[in-house]
Design a protein that fits this description.
By secondary structure, the chain is mainly beta. It is built from one helix and 26 strands. The chain folds into two domains: 22-159 and 282-312, Sandwich (Jelly Rolls), CATH 2.60.120.10; 162-275, Jelly Rolls (Sandwich). The chain has one helix spanning 293-306, and strands at 6-11, 22-32, 70-76, 79-87, 89-93, 99-103, 107-111, 116-121, 131-141, 152-156, 163-167, 173-180, 182-183, 186-187, 205-211, 216-219, 227-234, 237-240, 243-246, 249-253, 259-263, 268-275, 283-285, 288-290, 327-329, 335-337. A seven-stranded antiparallel beta sheet has the order 1-20-17-22-15-12-11, with no helix packed on it. Strands 2-9-4-7-10 form a five-stranded antiparallel beta sheet, with no helix packed on it. It has a four-stranded antiparallel beta sheet with strand order 5-6-25-26, with no helix packed on it. The longest helix has 14 residues, at 293-306. Residues 50-140 form the Pirin N-terminal domain.
């Protein structure tokens, strides 16, 4: 590629390709219909491979859910999930006894650490209208020294997440939601304590960028070793230093040079993931991410022996009450309500 600031351009698939310190990113976008009394779809589920329904049918997927869409209780170990909900709601239950409901701009930062069971169910709380859901789930690796951290999660509530609004020379606006990192002198909320993102020297950045038609925005230079990727997931086309990038493409960029992004004729939406690499071996098997095959075997043995503390809830796909608002009840008894 002739432009030395752009290292690669690639069409997005499922999941999205990421780089160290990130492990994976998925983009869920489902047009769920009105809900029923069980907070599932008020429509027939015939013809679906329930429990493994990942194909769009009638505008939505059930994923591993059989009554309510989503992901019933499943284990994780050795990494973090950062779940950014753009629209819709997610119900969380886990093996520490924590539960909650978040969405419509909220972010959950979950450290699975030494092992956690949790759910991500998508309750369809509206019975008189549709329940659209759009979210990103980003898997962020943990350094070896932090893979034994206690499982925990932190809520970044939508009202608290910093936003940066800037205008170019022609008055065209760009808005950046700062999920993690530092940009234009503004810091994000603190990530989870054990996270690679918790050390500012690791330059972890997770940004959501919205650009007006014709807007120009410049990504700053950070470091030569930075892994920087932008995911242009909605719009028509953008131009990176004059190079055209079509919607639903990833662009890998250099980290030590400024990058000018110019939007085309439609509003553009971009996810940015960047950070210094952890630089350790990564061995992944299903829901476990460790540094060696031996550690993976030990993780499976630990899960079979302990179930990561067991499952304190009466069903594997629990949901909160339809009338519940956004809240987090942590395993230590702390309660947050929004």
């Amino acid at each position: 590629m002739s432009n030395k600031k752009i290292l690669n351009i690639q069409k997005l698939g499922f999941p999205w390709v990421t780089e160290d310190p990130f492990l994976m990113t998925v983009h869920h976008n489902d047009a769920y219909p009105a809900g029923n009394d069980e907070q599932g779809p008020s429509t027939s589920l015939a013809g679906r491979n329930l429990g493994q329904d990942f194909m769009i049918k009638d505008g939505f997927r059930m994923y591993h859910g059989t009554t309510v869409p989503g992901f019933p209780a499943h284990p994780h170990k050795g990494f973090e999930t950062v779940t950014i909900v753009l629209e819709g709601l997610v119900d969380h239950f886990d093996s520490t006894g924590a539960r909650g409901r978040y969405g419509n701009g909220d972010v959950q930062w979950l450290t699975t650490g030494k092992g956690s069971l949790h759910t991500e169910m998508f309750p369809l709380v509206h019975k008189d209208k549709g329940n659209p859901l759009e979210l990103f789930q980003i898997w962020l690796n943990l350094a070896a020294k932090d893979k034994t951290a206690n499982p925990d999660y932190k809520m970044l509530w939508a009202e608290d997440i910093p936003e940066i609004e800037s205008a170019d020379a022609n008055g065209k606006k760009t808005t950046v939601r700062l999920i993690a990192g530092k940009l234009q002198g503004k810091n994000s909320l603190d990530p989870a304590a054990a996270s690679w993102a918790n050390d500012p020297n690791n330059h972890v950045g997770i940004y959501l960028i919205r650009m007006e038609p014709g807007a120009v925005f410049t990504m700053p230079a950070v470091s030569k070793t930075l892994n920087r990727n932008i995911y242009f997931y909605e719009g028509e086309e953008i131009y990176l230093e004059g190079t055209t990038v079509q919607a639903y493409h990833r662009a890998k960029l250099t980290g030590d040079q400024e990058i000018e992004i110019t939007n085309g004729e439609k509003e553009a939406y971009i996810l940015v993931l960047e950070g210094e690499p952890i630089g350790e071996p990564v061995v992944q098997h299903g829901p476990f991410v460790m540094n060696s095959e031996q550690e993976i075997r030990e993780a499976f043995n630990d899960y079979r022996r302990t179930q990561f503390g067991g499952w304190p809830w009466g069903r594997m796909d629990p949901v909160n009450e339809p009338s519940d608002g956004r809240f987090a009840r942590h395993g230590d008894g702390r309660i947050e309500e929004r």
